[in-house]
């Protein structure tokens, strides 16, 4: 896999290269919104409201929480992972080996080794005591810093080759001094030195039927099933059809899928046949069979592709994308057009031949009939308070979308290019960047070769934000697979130093999501590199994207200090640089109102008072640096006056303590002294504003 994405030419290159304007064939029929309200929302229930935003910028800003992290895992995330956990047969052996501080858990893909690793660490440190590690090239260089459970999922070939008895004994000593333990999960095909055998356990998954039973019990405990419904589901589970299915599908995930199918059976009244059919059609073999059956019908292939790429999107979105793709499929693989000796039906000579004219179906099949022909269906309409219209999503059964799209994209020559081309040409609808980005990311996680990441470049270099968000969602999904983490990081590092601003915007958009939350320290380095361009000021899309990324990182408490330290570094950097320009924007915004500003994308909007309350020492250093800077002095001074005038903000921000700290450094900091004297003059003029003693 190559990180040199710029070297390749993806399908329908960047916009600047003369690519077609997406949706040009529909745009004249779309409503323009210059004033009023533009409403968008994901089908799954998330909804955002934007005021007067251009249609192409009306995009999903939903943040997907990462499954893998570098840093502490939130306790609720670990608790959710362990919901319905069934101890595998090898769990007792894992406990015993972990007594030696290090456990190497080898497993086949999809057997639940990651969940087992969380469980064995949570037994010792609780659900809030687990920290994820990013795969280093050499574990001998890593040092535990706290008495926690450390989890490393996946090893690079270099790290695996360097992992021997000497390294493991050194880790044993380091972990013992820190009161910590380390679990490393590796695929069974990864070659490890022979002297690591005492630390290895080959994971064996629990029987899927046990997983189903435990998951049903968990649903009952959570109130999702009544006792009678749980008993009814267990009776169905004991039937030959479900038993045979689980015998043929032995992974823990299969047990979870059966439990969810049985819940639908007893709650929604679905038939056992329907549930089993849904389970079976999600397999790769069933996907290939469906595509083979439809290989001569452009309408069916385009509809299956649309539903798979845009799962659970509104029927109108699916229809329009399918129509665009169908135009590209119609001539694909067709025999040469008839020559001069056309038949009477083709030449219009039916009168001379005496045959009736060919009858054309001008309506075509109804949409629901077309869905039925490909095994899809309309889902119940959905409403959210922010939407002015109902949404009727379209979908397949469980996993069928993933299997179909993966087969189309990876196994049929030229189909990936046609899907990219259709995405480029189809009209944009809010939410498709999330649906398509996640779907593409899941597919590319199974891809190989240099084009795996290279094909993302045309959308990453686009001047349309929805395309950049699509790439961000795709990369966020791909990085959840340990084998791709290094390649994605290298790709983002490469783009962060690129000259085109859209590529750097894409890096920032990627940091404003699961990638940034999973790798906060790496994300902040990328944002720093993004601003290290030729720009003396940061405006427009780049400023918006970087601000969005910072607000996403600020949405989790563990990242606050990292962000504040970076803002302080940017504030202290040379004027007329992108870093300084962004710091000025952030400090001005949080001092006078909130950062990011209202109307700009943001997950958490912070005020100066909030940061002073939560991290007084780090924020104090930022305040001093900002008061020293002529570009931000007035804004910060105004912000401090706002805090001082509000009794509640004054109390929360520990203002008296801050004031004492500022007074202590005023003699050596001209900007701080200027603020202190200005405050003194203000209080002299308005004694009523004097702080209570």
Automatic annotation (TrEMBL):
Residues 8-25 have a biased composition (Low complexity). Residues 1-29, 329-363 are annotated as: Disordered. It comes from the Bacteria. This is HEAT repeat protein. It comes from Streptomyces cavourensis. The lineage of its organism: Bacteria, Bacillati, Actinomycetota, Actinomycetes, Kitasatosporales.
């Amino acid at each position: 896999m190559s990180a040199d994405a710029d070297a390749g030419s993806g399908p329908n290159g960047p916009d600047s290269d003369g690519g077609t304007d997406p949706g040009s064939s529909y745009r004249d029929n779309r409503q323009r919104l210059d004033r009023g309200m533009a409403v968008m929302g994901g089908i799954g229930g998330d909804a955002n409201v934007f005021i007067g935003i251009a249609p192409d910028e009306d995009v999903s800003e939903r943040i997907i929480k990462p499954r893998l992290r570098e840093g502490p895992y939130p306790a609720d995330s670990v608790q959710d992972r362990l919901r319905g956990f069934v101890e595998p047969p090898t769990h007792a052996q894992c406990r015993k080996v972990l007594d030696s501080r290090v456990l190497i858990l080898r497993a086949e893909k999809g057997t639940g080794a990651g969940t087992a690793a969380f469980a064995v660490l949570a037994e010792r440190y609780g659900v809030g005591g687990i920290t994820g590690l990013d795969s280093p090239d050499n574990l001998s260089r890593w040092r535990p810093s706290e008495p926690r459970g450390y989890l490393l999922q996946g090893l690079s070939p270099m790290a695996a080759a360097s992992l021997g008895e000497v390294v493991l004994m050194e880790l044993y000593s380091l972990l013992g001094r820190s009161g910590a333990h380390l679990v490393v999960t590796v695929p069974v095909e990864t070659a490890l030195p022979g002297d690591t055998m005492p630390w290895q356990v080959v994971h064996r998954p629990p029987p899927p039927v046990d997983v189903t039973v435990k998951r049903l019990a968990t649903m009952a405990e959570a109130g999702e099933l009544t006792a009678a419904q749980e008993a009814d589901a267990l009776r169905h589970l004991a039937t030959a059809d479900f038993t045979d299915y689980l015998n043929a599908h032995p992974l823990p995930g299969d047990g979870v899928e059966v439990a969810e199918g049985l819940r639908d059976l007893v709650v929604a009244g679905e038939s056992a046949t329907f549930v089993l059919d849904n389970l079976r059609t999600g397999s790769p073999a069933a996907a290939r069979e469906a595509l083979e059956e439809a290989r001569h019908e452009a309408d069916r292939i385009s509809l299956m592709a649309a539903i798979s790429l845009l799962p659970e999107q509104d029927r109108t979105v699916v229809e329009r994308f399918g129509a665009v793709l169908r135009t590209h499929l119609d001539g694909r693989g067709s025999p040469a057009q008839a020559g001069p000796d056309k038949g009477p039906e083709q030449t219009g000579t039916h009168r001379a031949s005496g045959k009736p004219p060919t009858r054309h179906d001008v309506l075509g099949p109804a949409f629901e009939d077309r869905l039925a022909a490909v095994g899809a269906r309309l889902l119940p309409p959905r409403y959210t308070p922010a939407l002015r219209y109902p949404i009727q999503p379209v979908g397949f059964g469980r996993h069928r979308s993933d299997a179909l799209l993966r087969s189309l994209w990876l196994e049929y020559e030229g189909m990936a290019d046609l899907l990219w081309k259709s995405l480029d040409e189809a009209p944009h609808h809010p939410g498709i960047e999330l649906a398509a980005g996640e779907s593409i990311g899941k597919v590319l996680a199974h891809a190989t070769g240099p084009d795996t990441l290279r094909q993302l470049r045309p959308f990453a270099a686009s001047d349309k934000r929805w395309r950049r968000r699509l790439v961000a969602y795709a990369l966020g999904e791909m990085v959840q697979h340990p084998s791709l983490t290094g390649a994605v990081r290298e790709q983002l590092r490469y783009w962060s130093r690129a000259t085109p601003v859209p590529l750097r915007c894409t890096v920032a958009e990627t940091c404003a999501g699961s990638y940034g939350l999973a790798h906060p320290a790496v994300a902040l380095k990328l944002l720093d590199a993004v601003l290290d361009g030729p720009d003396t000021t940061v405006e427009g899309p780049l400023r918006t994207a970087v601000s969005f990324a910072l607000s996403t990182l600020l949405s989790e408490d563990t990242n606050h200090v990292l962000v504040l330290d970076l803002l302080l570094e940017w504030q202290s950097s040379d004027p007329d640089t992108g870093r300084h320009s962004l710091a000025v924007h952030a400090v001005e915004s949080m001092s006078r109102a909130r950062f990011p500003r209202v109307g700009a994308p943001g997950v958490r909007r912070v005020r100066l008072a909030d940061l002073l309350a939560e991290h007084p020492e780090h924020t104090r250093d930022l305040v001093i640096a900002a008061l020293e800077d002529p570009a931000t002095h007035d804004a910060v001074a105004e912000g401090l006056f706002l805090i001082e005038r509000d009794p509640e903000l004054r109390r929360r921000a520990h203002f008296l303590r801050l004031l004492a700290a500022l007074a202590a450094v005023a003699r050596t900091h001209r900007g701080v002294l200027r603020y202190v004297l200005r405050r003194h003059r203000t209080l002299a003029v308005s004694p009523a504003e004097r702080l209570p003693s």
